[in-house]
Amino acid sequence: MEVKIGVQHAPREIVFETTEDPAEIEKRIAEAVAKDGTFGIDDTRGRRILVPGNRIAYVEIGSSSPGQVGFRS
After folding, report:
1. Which one is predicted more confidently, 67 or 71?
2. Does residue 41 fall inside a structural domain?
């Protein structure tokens, strides 16, 4: 699933794929924001992503869909 995190005062959002449960991601983000902690997650490429909870502007959690290429009828 694809996750997008908007960070305050950053020109680009953080976009990554993960296999974690959406409810668990939401819970961990809420805890990081409430406690001014750090949200950490591993993506499907094996990278560890860390975001300060007090800098999270928004989060989009959804399934990834391949982009459309070519003409549609």
Report:
1. 71
2. no
